[in-house]
Amino acid sequence: MTDRTHADVAVIGGGISGLALGYELRKRAGLRVVVLERRYSGSGASSRNVGRIRAMQLTPELTRVALLAQRKHERLTDELGANTLLWRAGYAWVLYDDAEVERMAALMPMFRELGVPTPRLHLGRAVERAFPVLRGGEPAAGALVGRDAIGHHDAVVYAYRRACGRRGVELAEGEDVVDLLRTGDAVTGVRTNRREILADHVVNATDGWAREVSAMAGLDVPNAPVRREVLVTEPARPFMSAAVTFYRPVEGWFNQTLRGELVAGVVAEDEPVAMNQSSSFAFLTRTSATLMRKAPRLGHLRMIRQWAGVYDMTPDRKPLVGPVSAAPGFVQMNGYSGRGFALAPLLAELLAEWLVGGTRPAVLEPFDPERFGAGVRADPESTDYYAGYARGPGDPPRTPGGDDPR
To answer: Could you tell me which CATH number the domain at 3-48+154-222+315-367 has?
Structure first.
């Protein structure tokens, strides 16, 4: 006979999103919450990222929520009673052609209006003067610079895990959801490899597995997992503070950690859509060659480890957050498109407010989980990072690899 238990909310996924939501629901209303994790807390994207908490985004909606998310991260150490190792490292979006510079310059009024802390745009040789690590490399056309932050992913997961335990959230590690319980279109609970759990709300906080879990609820969503790989070098004396990101010719990034390591990665132009957490030798050669062109001063560092995770991409690069009317009882909290670590604590707080109070917070309106029409896909095959941000829900999919019509 199958064991059956009851909960107010069953959260699928024990990463930062699931743990944060469990904590917020329990703190806010004392609800019975079970967080289900097939492996161990943070085993997915939450322990496979570089911890950047960037306020400077390409749209007002994302910038507004990212600013609020930074402030939430700044409160976490006091709220959770554990140091999350947050520091204001700074952020440099390095630009390699005039079109990129023009695009970033056009964003400056928005940043100032929304209160992004002291954004600056460096041009030409001023970039190397501001960031000596780039000297001798491919000349940069400009750099958009802000006072953004970095946190430690494992420290945040650990802090939330402890806080959930103190609050009485049931954390079921090693328990795999194999199906959802449904009555007609409504989702009434989950079936795991151990039991059935009846619940008023079932939350899909799985990110890279979001499409698979949504299908259990009878939903066809536009999420698509795309691999991102990272390497780490031996520690070195401090040589840089701001985290560097670039998108020409393809997406790449690097920064130095508080321990002195360099973390870096460069995306493959032809990375296929797949839930793939294995790292590759091709990534090492690609990343090393690109970094030597951008910042040859890094060439003496020796790599000591690497890993891979995924971005759960959506067509407009915005998350899916909130209840789904087509499947009553089912709630989305995924589709972060690479911003899960940064946004999850804030979105958990806002989603908990919504589920308890019944009213959607205004800042979540752009992230309606049902905003896309049938047949829309994330189109992550495009190597252009900017593609997708100019498109709206319901717009026809782009031709893979083609130019954005706008």
So the answer is: 3.50.50.60
Distance CA 52, CA 342 (A): 7
Q: Give pLDDT tens digits for 36-73.
A: 999 999 999 999 999 999 999 999 999 999 999 999 99
- Please count the other Cβ atoms lying within 10 Å of the Cβ belonging to residue 336: 28
Q: Are 73 and 224 in contact (CB under 8 A)?
A: no
Q: Which residues of 248-273 are buried (b: 16+ CB within 10 A; e: fewer)?
A: bebbbbbbbbeeebbbbbbbbeebeb
HSE toward the beta carbon, residue 346, CA cutoff 13 A? 23
**pTM (predicted TM-score):** 0.94
Q: Which residues contact 347 (CB under 8 A, 6 or more apart)?
A: 17, 65, 69, 319, 321, 333, 364, 367
Residue extent(s) of CATH 3.50.50.60 domains in the chain = 3-48+154-222+315-367
d(CA 19, CA 162): 10
Please provide the DSSP assignment of 12-50 as one string.
E--SHHHHHHHHHHHHHH---EEEEESSSTTTTGGGSS-
Instruction: Answer whether 322's CB lies under 8 Å from 307's CB.
Output: no
Query: Are the C-beta atoms of residues 377 and 359 closer than 8 Å to each other?
Result: no
Dump pLDDT digits (tens) for 130-182. Answer: 999 999 999 999 999 999 999 999 999 999 999 999 999 999 999 999 999 99
CATH of 90-150+225-313, one of 3.40.50.10300, 3.40.1360.10, 3.40.50.300, 3.30.9.10: 3.30.9.10
Residues of the chain with CATH 3.30.9.10: 90-150+225-313
Tokens standing for 167? 């609050």
Q: How many CB atoms lie within 10 A of CB 218?
A: 15
Q: How far apart are alpha carbons 41 and 323 in whole angstroms?
A: 24
- The label of the residue with tokens 């449904």 reads 182
- Show the beta-strand stretches assigned E in 314-380: 320-323, 330-334
